[in-house]
Each structure stands twice: as structure tokens, then as C-alpha cells.
Amino acid sequence: MITVCNAPVRLSFPVGHFQHHWEQCGLTANLLATISPELSPYMTTVVSTVLNEMIENAVKYAATPTSLIELMQWVTDRGIECEVTNTARPNDANNVLALCDRLSASDSDPDAMFYEALEVAGSATDASSQLGLLGIVQAYNVKLGCSVQQTDHGQSTVSVKAVIYVSEEERV
Length: 172
Known about the structure:
about 45% helix, about 25% strand, six-stranded antiparallel beta sheet, alpha+beta
């Protein structure tokens, strides 16, 4: 379901189809980026890239194929804000929360974190490197926030919010 009005754009879908057709993540991100109000072509690409990464993570770490992913995007004075919510296994939810906590620390260095994760990912078999999220923070100066709530079924509801700053020059 897509709701478009002066309020946030909302989209929700079950994760199952996306797990078998990864290109759907990019198509969904492109759709939401292109309906963003009057962004320059460069910023439309940035919004699409950020959303694609957030959608892919939500799909990748979904607790079950029937889990529902909810996307919300809205415009603020600062730029575009996006929030992706899904249900994940507690360990995966805690990994995302730990990443957001590390990024929000006063001494955080996203560049160093990205290259450290890249080195670890090259030699590890663990698929939870968070390279994608670190990459968008490092490349586009995106600010991430995260919240995790435990469900009654031993899973976690994870919301990841990204703030994409858009300058006046980048608005058309």
C-alpha cells in the first residue's frame, strides 16, 4: 500500500517476495526517491541509494518471510528523512542497535569504521558486517538512528531512521 499526500509517504510489504527478487529493493527505493519533492538528480540518486540499502538490510535480517516491512519518508527543513521498520531476530536487532550506538558516539569516525568493517568482512564468513549502512554514512554523511522493541514472540521490532541532509542548492 502506498499513501501519498502532504504527510509522510508510507509503503508496507511482506518481505518474502523481496528475498527472492532482490531487484525489487532497488525498484522500490527508486520509486520513493523519484516522488521526493523537487530534488536535484544527484540528490534523487542519493535518496535512492540510501533507501535501497535500508530496504536490503530490512529484507536480509527479517525474522520470517511473512514479516512486514514498513517504509516511511518525509521532507523536513533539513532534507529527507526515511524510516524502515521490520521484525528481526534479537541478535540481528542488537547488531544494528550497536552500530547506531557506535555511530552516535562523540568520537565516532565513520571512515575508520567503514574500512575496519571492510577488512573484517574480507576475512570473515559472518554476513552481518553492516558494510552497507556504514557505506551510506561514510559516502553521503547520512545520520542514522535506531530503536529496538522486543515483541511477545521472542523477536524484535527494529526501526532504522536515516536523515539525508539536502542543501538549498540541491533542491530544484
